[in-house]
Amino acid sequence: MATALPDAAPVAAPRRLRRRRTFGDFLTQVVLPVLAVGLLAFAGWFVWRNRVVIGNPPPPIPPARNPFPDAVAAAGVVEAQTENIAVGSALPGVVVEVLVTVDDEVQPGTPLFRLDDRELRADLAVRRAAVSQAKSDLLRLESEPRPEKIPVVVAQVNEARAAVVRETDALRRAEETFARKVTTEQEVIARREALAGVQAALEKTEADLALLKAGSWAYDLDVSQAGVAKAEAEVQKIETDLDRLVVRSLVAGRVLQVNVRPGEFVGAPPGQPLVIVGNIDRLHVRVDIDEFDIPRFDSRAPASAVPRGSLQERYPLSFVRVEPFVVPKKSLTGDNTERVDTRVLQVIYACDPTNRPPLFVGQQVEVYVEAAGRGAP
């Protein structure tokens, strides 16, 4: 039979310790929460104060305004009337002297810079000596026969004739003695052979005299004259190369840029234009018209240009020509929607900046051309 367990003894309640509040308790229970709430409020205020405000501020420079109700807008570049002529060197070499500076006026034939010509000048001296030698040979042939040579050959002819007479007389005496049975037949044959030999020698000396008096052969003169012409042509070639080492301007205008210095080596063709020359008495503007705007373009319509950075200035343009070859666009505007495979029609306009701020070659302008009606060609 199970026995009942005695009741558990009652547990005593824990005693609550009481102590005096310290300054640390005050900091942790009061100061720190208040400081946290204050920092949170400051952070919210700082974020609100420095938030990004999206507004629509006015531009620093008013944009260019289209002066026509319907216009073809395009980008243009100012260039010289003769276009920007990039002058290079036809021959490679080291630049020894630059003869112009930027903004100098030049005329056709004005020297721009000069290359080292010492090697060509030495070669020119050799070629000129060859010309002198060829001319001396030609003069010698034209002066033939030499007067002092004729008496020598005439004396040789007389000597040969005397030998013929002597051998003829000796042969006659040998034949007479042979007829009288005094000499042998062998003696007669020897005399006949000796006579034949002196007769041949006489013919040779007479031929030499005739050849000497005839002078030089015409074909020898032709060969000598050709040699003189060849030597002179080589001299002219060297002189031409020497002249090409002095690079000159071929147009009248002004030096726009100089990209070469003494001591630099220039190749043919150079890596960059060495000197840029152009006639800027009257400026041209090369306008790139998008291929989609070509049907709306009318060369007879008025046009005006507005330079970038001075959008309130307007320069009237006059049509010059159209280059009828649509080319890929090279100068991009940077617009994200612009296609890099855009092709443009280049139109040339004349611009007169008189009584207006000056324009400079290479400056970009905004061009507006009044658009043609839909029925216009």
Word description of this protein:
It contains five helices and 14 strands. Helix 2 packs antiparallel against helix 5 and helix 3 packs antiparallel against helix 4. It is elongated and about 190 Å long. It folds into three domains: 102 residues, Beta Barrel (Elongation Factor Tu (Ef-tu), domain 3), CATH 2.40.30; 64 residues, RNA polymerase II/Efflux pump adaptor protein, barrel-sandwich hybrid domain (OB fold (Dihydrolipoamide Acetyltransferase, E2P)); 119 residues. The protein has 377 residues and is α+β, with helices and mostly antiparallel strands. Helices cover 37% and strands 22% of the residues.
Give the class from helix and strand content and strand pairing.
Answer: alpha+beta
Helicity range of the residues?
25-40%
Structural domains: how many = 3
SSE series: HEEEEEHHHHEEEEEEEEE
Q: Biggest sheet: strands side by side, in what order?
A: 1-10-13-12-11-14
Evaluate the radius of gyration. 54 Å
Give start-end ranges of low-pLDDT stretches: 1-5
Task: Give the overall silhouette.
Answer: elongated
Give a count of the beta strands, DSSP E runs of length 2 or more. 14
How far the N terminus sits from the C terminus, by CA atoms, comes to 127 Å
**Mean model confidence by pLDDT:** 85
| Percent of residues in β-strands | 15-25%
Main sheet makeup: 6 strands, antiparallel, barrel
Q: Note the total helix count.
A: 5
